[in-house]
Design a protein that fits this description.
mainly alpha, 6% strand, Glycosyltransferase, 16 helices, disordered N terminus, single chain, three-stranded antiparallel beta sheet, globular
């Protein structure tokens, strides 16, 4: 009887050990496992979700709302924009053209006249019949909609990276279309701060720092036009003005300008979006830009705040200041990415690499030896209750997390190791007062 009573506890203990066991692979090995899984699992097929039939092209297919893009990695979504950027960064780091060629194949699959025109017709049909809500079931609807930064910001940013390598008129046309949207159509406050008109009118979302700046910073480099860097820098500084909590040294998820209220949560991924956006901007921003120093100080301020909330396992929590919320990988990855890049570029003190190292160790407990990424919080809007953030589900192997995780791993491949000044090495500098 005693043995039988013990067995469930042994099984439970072993299960816990499995969940939190350390992945012993290096950052490079882990990045390749994840990236190669993504590459080999992308199907480049269309599917009728009623009949199960698949097609390599929809060029001559009768219009049907049941026809969709089969692979999540072929969808037009901001998360794939981040993943595409990460894959190209990995290819650059490893000097392996396979990954940029994969991204090119994805974009050629989309910007194929037969494929694109088919789904544009479905989109127009759905919009006429059911309005904006109805188009959400159409593949690539975000490409055609172009009404929000989620539709075009990060995907446009990834196209800029691709355009620099493989010039293509269709890519450039979309890049210019995105630039025009951000410059002239995107909702803004009177001071130029990008805002959304939901859930309150003119709500500032921390997420939009990356959704905008990922594009603006790369557009500045592509065109050489300083206005993009200036706009991006002003977004960072204004978002800090509206969202920064000086007491906790964290960003709120949102700020409602209609009632001057912050959102309830210091959500991890929202803080990560801001941090990753600044790291991107500092990479592309000219050294002599008049706002660079202000952006750098802002980045350093956030790095200091982020470091104070790292959990005991190296991961950051879903709600940064709530240790009873679950450990989550996307925010963690964004922080590791920014800290590692910051140290390597000299933007941060070398001590911060220790924080990044512990973050990487934590990430490895959420990545299997097969390169499966777990503990990815699902897409999360804004709600006026902490309970909403506490109970957001997690998922596995979704671009929502794979992109940030890959970016973090790429930065850690060649990151310096933490070293400390030993006390005894300094003793000779201490002398008796005369």
């Amino acid at each position: 009887m005693k043995l039988r009573k013990l067995i469930p506890f042994v099984v439970l203990f072993l299960g816990i050990q499995t969940v939190y066991s350390q992945n012993k692979m290096s950052a490079e090995e882990t990045a390749k496992k994840i990236a190669n899984r993504i590459v080999t699992s992308t199907s480049y097929l269309f599917e009728n979700n009623k009949t199960g039939e698949t097609y390599t092209t929809v060029k001559d297919l009768a219009l049907s709302p049941n026809v969709v893009v089969q692979s999540k990695y072929n969808q037009w979504h901001y998360t794939n924009g981040v993943t595409n950027i990460a894959l190209m960064e990995l290819g650059d780091k490893l000097k392996d053209k396979k990954y940029e060629n994969y991204v090119l194949k994805n974009m050629n699959f989309v910007f194929n006249d037969g494929n694109l025109s088919y789904f544009k017709k479905l989109y127009d049909q759905a919009l006429q019949k059911d309005g904006w809500y109805g188009v959400r079931n159409v593949s690539w609807h975000m490409l055609f909609r172009g009404k929000r930064l989620d539709d075009n910001g990060p995907m446009g940013a990834s196209l800029i990276e691709l355009q620099k390598r493989f010039p293509n008129k269709a890519f450039l046309d979309y890049i210019n279309e995105t630039a025009n949207h951000i410059n002239t159509s995107e909702p803004r406050l009177s001071d130029g701060t990008i805002a959304r008109i939901w859930p309150h009118e003119n709500t500032i979302w921390a997420d939009d720092a990356f959704m905008a700046i990922s594009f603006l910073s790369r557009m500045g480099q592509l065109t050489g036009d300083d206005k993009y860097f200036t706009d991006a820098a002003n977004q960072v500084l204004n978002y800090t003005k509206y969202l920064w909590d000086p007491e906790k040294q964290l960003y709120y998820h949102c700020y409602h300008t209609d009632d001057n209220e912050h959102g309830v949560a210091h959500w991890s991924r929202a803080n990560g979006w801001v941090f990753m956006a600044q790291a991107d901007l500092l990479k592309y921003m000219p050294k002599n830009h008049p706002l660079r120093d202000a952006v750098l100080k802002n980045f350093q301020q956030q790095a200091s705040g982020v470091a104070r909330y790292q959990g005991k396992n190296g991961l950051w929590h879903q709600i940064l200041d709530k240790e009873d919320s679950y450990e989550e990988i996307t925010g963690t990855a964004m922080f590791v990415f920014g800290l590692a890049r910051g140290v390597k570029e000299g933007w941060l003190h070398p001590d911060f690499i220790y924080v990044a190292e512990q973050g990487l160790k934590g990430m490895m407990t959420k990545i299997t030896p097969n390169g499966d990424v777990t503990a990815i919080c699902v897409g999360t809007g804004i709600m006026p209750s902490l309970q909403y953030y506490y109970t957001r589900p997690t998922q596995e192997n979704d671009p929502m997390g794979e992109g940030p995780v890959l970016r973090a791993l790429v930065e850690m491949i060649d990151a310096p190791k933490y070293t400390e000044i030993k006390a005894e090495s300094q003793y000779d500098k201490i002398g008796l007062k005369k």
